[in-house]
Amino acid sequence: MTSNLVISSRCSLFLTLFYLLVSASLTATSAQWVWPKPRTLSWPIPLATILSPNFTISSPYHQHLSPAVNRYRLQILTEHHRPLVPPPVNLSNSSPPLQALTITVKDLSAPLQHSVDESYALAIPTASSTANLTAETVWGAMRGLETFSQLVWGLKPLLVPVGLDVWDSPLFEHRGIMLDTSRNYYPVDDILRTIKAMSANKLNVFHWHITDSHSFPLVLPSEPALADKGSYGNDMLYSPADVATIVRFGLEHGVRVLPEIDSPAHTGSWAEAYPDIVTCANMFWWPAESEWADRLASEPGTGQLNPLNPNTYQVLKNVIGDAVALFPEPFFHAGGDEIIPGCWKADPAIQSFLSKNGTLSQLLEKFVNSTFPYIVSLNRTVVYWEDILLDANVKVGPSFLPPEHTILQTWNNGPNNTKLIVSSGYRAIVSSSEFYYLDCGHGDFPGNDSQYDPPPTSGDSGNGGSWCGPFKTWQTIYNYDIAYGLTPEETKLVLGGEVALWSEQADPTVLDVRIWPRASAMAETLWSGNRDESGKKRYAEAMDRLNDWRHRMVNKGIRAEPLQPLWCIKNPGMCNTVHPSD
């Protein structure tokens, strides 16, 4: 496309003939820079018109939509996206410049929460200077604004398709990223940048794993000592004002902020303020000469809350109460994962309890009975990791977890555990480590590890030295069907999925490249699926679109990692394999 965007009649004729020859392909890909792919997009003749430099967006006032409208208008007029492979589009001779986008919202009062309607319809007519975006809620309007913004491209003047209609709505209502900010700290600006990128990918849940055994960075009014003594330092804290900034930013980008305060395991940092309520704190995680089953933690950083100490519940209820006050999100993630028997067994009081025929699962039952009803009383639905129901050693029975108040997040054993959860009547969030863990394949972090020194002739690379290796490629993520093997009724209980970035070996220096564009792959599959109209997996055609989307994210300041050499992108299809894998 020339800089002045004047297309000669000869070139125009050539493009028209080319379109007629490969119309089936072009119709599918001429709006290829829209990510995630809309559910339905009709653009029968690829024509474009000029976007007026005085382009405006009109919408009803809303405290969160109105800032989004202003942000998108500025982005649309200043981004000047140039697709890596220019689309074969003709400039319409009959369409006036597009002057305005009018937004209509049917329900301005619907809050941002699970199951809110995110559908929208977008129409950019051929013979009108006004486009129309209609949505049930402001959150659907935000999704439509993102789609419209991605349809604009070029330098001067800007171009926008005409004769285009979109109807769009997500397949899954929960589409998220989990970020661990305990093992390594992330400044507020990094979290905001992540939320901004999530919104661009139509992801809607930022699952914030705030605390763990390694640090307690969240400042809580009722329990200030936890952060004062349990954080990495005064410059690595999240104040109530920081939380308010993150929550407000999320709302203005259509992203819920779901807090996780993990317990009773993963609480070693609490011992800095309250050593009496934490068992095995600051002990060596895997004592020499002991079996793996006798470890105190699954990685360095020990400590679990003591269910037999009444002070445990006073502190924990203060923590939960403050967290609920800080986060308006109706879901509260209470953790419940990786309870290690050896840690509780290290406590004298628990040893006495077990010697009288008590069990570790009874300890967990006591803990759940003392905390679950309190969380529910605060009008929250409780999210737990799957371990609380499925762990082989320490778990509670279903009677302790009423399905109407409980959601289970799965991370082990792929679709098999998802099946176990939903077949038991529970709603599920899927984060299968085999597919959705972004930290995998980078090695493990304990030092003095002999797995990195196998005999040179063994051929054993240690699977990347990672318990969940190998690295999860974007294709692995894109091709994962989170409802695989489920009945239609069971599928209804799958709320959606989250990719997860645990931060043992991640910090702000690698945040973007660990997440993007692999999270984009999940974003599309949860929004519009990973199959075409015939039911065939569409990862082949997704490659070029994701390359262009990654390029666009980089230009937005998101340091997404590359997927292919630029040569491949400039020569579509030449880097594909045409042979089936073994």
Describe the 3D structure:
With 582 residues, the protein is α/β, with parallel strands linked by helices. The chain has a domain at 40-168: Chitobiase, domain 2, CATH 3.30.379.10. Helices cover 33% and strands 18% of the residues. It has 20 helices and 18 strands. The protein has helices at 9-21, 23-29, 65-78, 138-151, 188-200, 224-230, 240-252, 310-326, 341-345, 348-355, 360-377, 387-390, 414-423, 433-436, 474-478, 488-491, 511-515, 518-527, 539-555, 566-570; strands spanning 40-42, 47-58, 90-91, 98-107, 120-124, 130-137, 158-162, 164-168, 174-180, 205-211, 256-263, 278-279, 304-305, 331-335, 381-385, 406-410, 427-430, 494-501. The strands form 3 sheets. Strands 1, 2, 3, 4, 5, 6, 7 and 8 form an 8-stranded mixed β-sheet that branches. It is globular. The two termini are 42 Å apart. Residues 1-30 have low confidence and may be disordered.
Helix content: 25-40%
CATH superfamily of the domain at 40-168: Chitobiase/beta-hexosaminidase domain 2-like
CATH fold label of the domain at 40-168: Chitobiase, domain 2
Q: How large is the count of helical segments? A: 20
Q: Major sheet: size, sense and barrel closure?
A: 8 strands, mixed
Quick structural gist:
Its EC number is 3.2.1.52. By secondary structure, this protein is of the alpha/beta class. The chain has a domain at 40-168: Chitobiase/beta-hexosaminidase domain 2-like (Chitobiase, domain 2), CATH 3.30.379.
For this entry, give a set of tags:
Chitobiase, domain 2, about 20% strand, EC 3.2.1.52, about 35% helix, 18 strands, single chain, Beta_hexosaminidase_sua/sub, HEX_eukaryotic_N, glycoprotein, alpha/beta, about 575 residues, eight-stranded mixed β-sheet
